[in-house]
Design goal:
By secondary structure, the chain is mainly alpha-helical. The chain folds into 3 domains: 1-99, Fumarase C, Chain B, domain 1; 101-267 and 279-359 and 432-453, Fumarase/aspartase (Central domain) (Fumarase C, Chain A, domain 2); 363-423, Fumarase/aspartase (C-terminal domain) (Ribonucleotide Reductase Protein R1, domain 1). It is 62% helix and 5% strand. Strand 3, helix 8 and strand 4 form a beta-alpha-beta unit. The two termini are 36 Å apart.
């Protein structure tokens, strides 16, 4: 019976789960064994007939999960069990299976192939999400809303500007993914401690031919295993991207607060927000993303702990990697699917943004007035002190800032009332809003034009 929510089908797409399923892992390892045999035959190391037989028998329909597990009860070594079953299926040519290599030549190379498939799925999903953020940013480039720092109104911003910041952040993760793929998606065909001794004088040629068949580059050098800094970088990147998705999710969750309600997740007609409170419309998708991000960040420590192994290797990394690698990729897949759904169905409330802009009765524009006074000759410090006093007065007396400013003889020396009304208008204090949005979108889209993994 399934225990993990990934196995129950709750998280992760069928495509990503299929990559890490037991049978596909076995088949991918068998693919490596077959490619190795063909490379060995091409350089004359083993008979061509043996390579052909190994290729024909290297199928999870023949070397089944059940047969390998049954043999593993005896060998207590999963790869040795697989090799024994494969060898038996190959009959007289079985002695040439796994020729000159060690277990991690097969497992690490197979893992790179699985990760290549997984990262291509994630790359496509991330690209779609970035483009959707760019489109939404363009759509709402002129929609003015309160900018907030420390949860307090700061100065005006636009909703498009806010989304452009997230688009650029996710584009940086996209760029990192393309960079790290060159370090992570590598294979190893180099034997017991990495010296290639068992492969003989044609070892480098065998490695090159094997990995070319599989579409991978070889590691520069390895011990018995591909050094685990590569996988740690992958998991750290996954956690970093997950945290960026979490930041976007937290933003939406906050904007959906009843008291704010400037943007909200879509909510289906038959959807329930509570089993007892009929009025509830909860940001459940964004909350799921935040929850899964916590799990992703938790996978970083074991990934880092797996880097320091004893001498040329020990087995302390293996058990942890069986969790953290499939989990990190599957969780990330789920988060990207979920955030795409959130953005596609996002509800935006311009009227609530306008309402909230007016909550402080103009005090959100204190900086704008301060800078106008400073530029008119009052000086920044004096203008700051004055606006601090007048803003506080407006707050205490529950009056509009414009009304208090109108009564100030100091302000009147530098600005007319008509000028004040123009300065205190939020849409007039957006700086280089459009230029910055366009710059962020241009950067984000340019990242998507990079080569695929």
């Amino acid at each position: 019976m399934p225990v993990c929510p990934i196995d129950t089908g709750r998280y992760g797409s069928p495509e990503i789960r299929r990559i890490f399923e037991e049978e596909n892992r076995l088949q991918t390892m068998l693919n490596v064994e077959a490619a190795l045999a063909e490379a060995l035959a091409e350089v004359g190391e083993i008979p061509v007939e043996a390579a052909s037989t190994i290729r024909s028998k290297a199928s999870s329909k023949i070397v089944t999960v059940e047969k390998v597990k049954e043999r593993e009860r005896v060998t207590r070594h999963d790869i040795a069990a697989m090799v024994e079953v494969l060898s038996e299926e190959c009959g007289e040519h079985g002695e040439y299976a796994h020729w000159g290599v060690t277990s991690n030549d097969i497992t690490d190379t197979a893992l790179a192939l699985q990760l290549k498939d997984a990262l291509n799925i994630i790359r496509k999903r991330l690209g779609i999400l970035i483009e959707k953020l760019c489109e939404k940013s363009e759509e709402y480039a002129g929609l003015v809303m309160p900018g907030r720092t420390h949860g307090q109104h700061a100065v005006p911003i636009t909703f498009g500007f806010k989304l452009a910041v997230h688009a650029a952040e996710l584009a940086r993760s996209y760029e990192r993914m393309l960079q790290l793929s060159k370090r992570v998606l590598v294979g190893k065909i180099s034997g017991a401690v990495g010296t290639m001794a068992a492969l003989g004088p044609k070892a480098l040629m065998i490695e090159e031919k094997t990995l070319r068949k599989l579409g991978l580059e070889p590691v520069e050098i390895a011990t018995q295993v591909v050094c685990r800094d590569r996988l740690a970088e992958l998991v750290c990147w996954a956690a970093l991207l997950g945290s960026s998705l979490d930041r976007l999710a937290v933003e939406i969750r906050n904007l959906q607060r009843t008291e704010i309600m400037e943007a909200a997740e879509g909510f289906g007609e038959e959807q329930r927000g509570s089993s007892t409170m009929p009025q509830k419309q909860n940001p459940v998708d964004s909350e799921k993303v935040s929850g899964l991000a916590k799990v992703l960040r938790g996978l970083v420590v074991p990934a880092l702990e797996n880097i320091p192994l004893w001498h040329e290797r020990d087995l302390s990394n293996s058990s942890g990697e069986r969790f953290i690698i499939p989990l990190s990729m599957t969780i990330l897949d789920e988060m990207l699917i979920t955030m795409q759904n959130v953005l596609t169905n996002l509800r935006v409330y311009p009227e609530h943004m306008a309402r909230n802009l007016a909550i402080t009765r103009g005090r959100i524009m204190s900086e704008a007035v301060m800078m106008k006074l400073a530029r008119r000759g009052m000086g920044r410090k004096r203008a700051y002190d004055l606006m601090r006093t007048l803003s506080r007065k407006a707050f205490i007396e529950n009056r509009s800032l414009l009304e208090v400013l109108k009564e100030s003889p100091e302000v009147a020396k530098y600005m007319s009332f008509e000028e004040l009304k123009e300065v205190i208008e939020p849409k007039n204090y957006l700086g280089k809003n459009l230029e910055l949005i366009n710059r962020a979108i241009s950067y984000a889209r340019s990242r998507l034009e990079k080569d695929a993994i």
